[in-house]
Amino acid sequence: MIPAVRALARAAMAARPVPLADVQARAELLARFDNTYLVPVEVFAAFAAELTDRRRPGGPFAVLCINGRRWFRYHSVYYDTPDLRSFHDDRQRRRLRYKIRERLYADTGERQFEIKLKGSRGETVKHRQPLLPGDAALGAAPRGFLASVLDRSYGIAAPTELGRSIETDYTRATFVANGRRITCDAALLCRDLETGHTVRADGGLILVETKTTGHLTEADRLLHGYGIHAAEFTKYCGGLSALRPDLTAHDWQRAVRTAFPTAA
Which InterPro entries does the entry mention (predicted)? Predict the structure, then answer.
């Protein structure tokens, strides 16, 4: 077990478990503000211990637990146009930008077709639709859903040419308190579906994302106190930048080098 997965497992086992229904009731957060951090395992261990401490004022963060499991394997496939419109719109911080992906929850078999947009205040807004076994991720129903979301949210047409860009695999534990959710990902692997090349994230780093309806949270302030600040990093854009160094991603280079040192 690599250090990041071991640290994730220890933190999850130390927390009080809650079922998925409680997480959805307390902090589903389909519209939220996100901050992303690349956290060394030593810092993560101390950070998680503070959040899950049962003596914590206001109560400890709990951990998502499904069928006795407290950490889960995620597999995502990202879709983009031939000219990588989603990637470059994000790189240029265009106001109307979005990502399209299929997500598989490997431990339960659940599949979702998801569209992540940027809202008018810079918040992330996620729309999703379940995929049944045998459904094509870019079949008629998901394409209709995509067209409806983009027309309703941005007043733009959906791209007609879409293909598989990269896929990602990682292990996640989710910690939750009222109105706040923290996802913690380890062992990130990105694969270029055009070339077959892969990059692995540093095994001593955990990707922590704070999600809330506000801005800075207690978790953000704790990480700042450890000298960890938010990174310009997403799995899709960071992974694609590491896999294809010819792509222009100046604002992300530091985070990409930190997350994928072997690619650098």
Answer: VTC_domain
> Residue 27: is its pLDDT beyond 60?
no
Partners of residue 199 on adjacent β-strands: 190
Joined tokens for residue 163: 């293909």
The span from the CA of 180 to the CA of 223, in Å, is: 15
Q: Residue written as tokens 């007609």? A: 160
Q: What phi, psi does 221 have (nearest 5°)?
A: -65, -35
- Extract the tokens encoding 132: 């049944």
| Cβ(158)–Cβ(150) below 8 Å | yes
- The DSSP symbol for 251 reads G
Q: Which pair of tokens denotes residue 115? A: 């569209």
Going by DSSP bridges, is the β-strand pair 180-192/205-212 parallel, antiparallel, or unpaired? antiparallel
Listed residue (261, 241, 264) closest to 192, CA to CA? 241
Q: Show the CA angle centred on residue 205, arms to residues 61 and 170, nearest 5°.
A: 80
Average pLDDT over residues 219-248: 93
Q: Which residues pair with 180 in a beta bridge?
A: 177, 212
Q: What is the pLDDT of residues 146-205, one digit of tens each?
A: 999 999 999 999 999 999 999 999 999 999 988 788 999 999 999 999 999 999 999 999
Q: Is the pTM of this model over 0.85?
A: yes
Domain spans of the chain?
A: 3-28+35-94+104-111+166-259
Residue whose structure tokens are 């733009």: 156
Residue 119 phi/psi, 5-degree rounding, is -80, 180
Picking from 21-35, 82-96, 168-182, 197-211, which range would have the lowest pLDDT averaged per residue? 21-35
Q: Are 238 and 38 in contact (CB under 8 A)?
A: no
Q: How far is CA 184 from the centre of its chain?
A: 9
Taking each helix axis from N to C end, the angle separating 41-52 and 218-225, rounded to the nearest 10 degrees, works out to 140
